[in-house]
Amino acid sequence: MLAVGFALFRWWQGPLLPSYTVQSMPLVQTVVATGQVVTVSRTQVGSEVTGVVLERLVQEGDRVAQGDLLLVLRSDDVAAQVRQAETALTELATSTRPQAEVALANAQVQLTQARGNVERRRQLAAISAISAEEMAQAEQAESQAKNNLEAARLKAAALQEGGVEETLLKERVAALQAQFNKTEVRSQVAGTVLTRDVETGDLIQPGQTLFTIAVDGSTEIRVPLDERNLSKLALQQSAMAITDAYPDQPFPAYINFIAPSVDPQRGTVEVRLTVNPLPEFLRQDMTVSVNIETDRRAQALVLPNDALGSVQGDDAVVVLLRDGKIQRQKVTLGLRGLAMSEVIAGLSIGDEVLADAATSLADGSRVRIESQKASLIQSVHDKNLASVLPETSN
After folding, report:
1. Mean pLDDT, residues 386-392 taken together
2. Does 242 or 357 have the greater pLDDT score?
3. I need a surface site. Which of 52, 210, 218, 362 has the fewest CB within 10 A?
4. Closest alpha carbon to 262 in 222, 224, 223, 292
5. What element of type H or E holds 185?
6. How many CB atoms lie within 10 A of CB 125?
7. DSSP 134-165
8. Average confidence (pLDDT) over 189-199
9. Contact, 68 vs 56, CB < 8 A?
């Protein structure tokens, strides 16, 4: 009889069902999304001259500094012209210029001699000791010596240090050296080589892209977010990002751009997040999951989402326990999460609600409850798993 009575008592109490206790605790709301790493600034490297590739020194993934040598073209002809021009410049200083200075000195001596000869001839002509023709020859020789001296002076002036000849030769050397330097293709920026489109032995033309380099310091994560989340997003919102390749190394980011338009085919809006500081392991086009923090509460009445039923916007229904009996209760929601949601109206701290909001039991039914441990609920918050709507990249 005692066993039968106990059984009837249990039947009267109703079935044993899991429940949650409404608690007050911190709540963080995030938008979970998946996107890709994109380097904002890229530069394409080409050659200014036509040539055959003699040596390629870098490949995809290599880091380069500004000025690093990337590629060498065959340059035998240009190198020979540079050496020839440099030799001519050396000859100017060691041979041609000294010879011109000697020639100028000789021309001065010859003019002095010619003038002396004219003077002597005039004295002889005064006493009719020489003919007029001999006098004319002496004067003609003096005039020629003057012309020779002027020519020697002009040549020496052109060949002197800093003169026209030296300037022209230096300009030729510089022009040929610049042409030679173009056979060495160097990086103008510091960054990472993304692509290479050239091999040793290839004939390349000016304007042809040889390498693409991602410039250091400008890296973003681009994420397509469901447009339903647009109202919850704002510039400068912080986020934590995790790559598929390095899941144990999360890093911070923040929103720097929200697209002004929505993709009508996908129903998504593009969001860009700045990564700062930039992890060394981050690579172009890596897949990245981001948790964008859209709101938080220092303290809020929270309830696991599986206790919510008939969710319509910010309205929902819970199965509330009062004096051992259940009744459906309308509640108003605040922050919405993947695991937990904030209740801003309809419940109080300490209230017990059934874990299964879809129970078929009618209002007024008696039930016994087995409250879920609060520590399990708390751990959900501690891991910041709350999310408005989970996203996936396309």
Report:
1. 39
2. 242
3. 362
4. 224
5. strand 184-186
6. 15
7. HHHHHHHHHHHHHHHHHHHHHHHHHHSTTSHH
8. 89
9. no
Instruction: Name the CA radius of gyration of the chain, rounded.
Output: 46
Q: What percent of the chain has pLDDT over 90?
A: 25
Task: Pull the structure tokens for residue 67.
Answer: 């000025």
Q: Rounded to whole angstroms, how far apart are CA atoms 339 and 388?
A: 9
Q: What is the pLDDT of residue 114?
A: 81
Q: How far apart are CA 47 and CA 207, in angstroms?
A: 7
What tokens appear for 68 in the block? 């690093």
**DSSP 8-state class, residue 383:** T
Write down the domain spans for the chain: 16-41+221-394, 42-74+183-215, 77-180
Query: For residues 72 and 52, what is the distance between their CA atoms, to the nearest angstrom?
Result: 9
- Tell me the pLDDT of the chain averaged across its residues: 82
As a whole number, mean pLDDT of residues 360-367 equals 85
Looking at residue 104, its amino acid is L
Continuous segment of H or E residues that includes residue 19: strand 16-21
Arithmetic mean of pLDDT, 266-291: 89
Closest by Cα among 60, 38, 64, 58 to 284: 38
Cβ atoms of residues 253 and 261 within 8 Å: no
222 strand-pairing partners = 36, 272
**Positive or negative: CA dihedral 187, 192, 196, 199:** positive
The reply to whether CATH 3.40.640.10 applies to domain 42-74+183-215 is no
Distance CA 252, CA 356 (A): 37
**pTM value surpassing 0.85:** no
CATH number of 16-41+221-394: 2.40.30.170
Place of tokens 């060394």: 280
DSSP 237-266: -EEEEEESS-TT--EEEEEEEE-SS-BTTT
Is 192 in contact with 63 (CB distance < 8 Å)?
yes
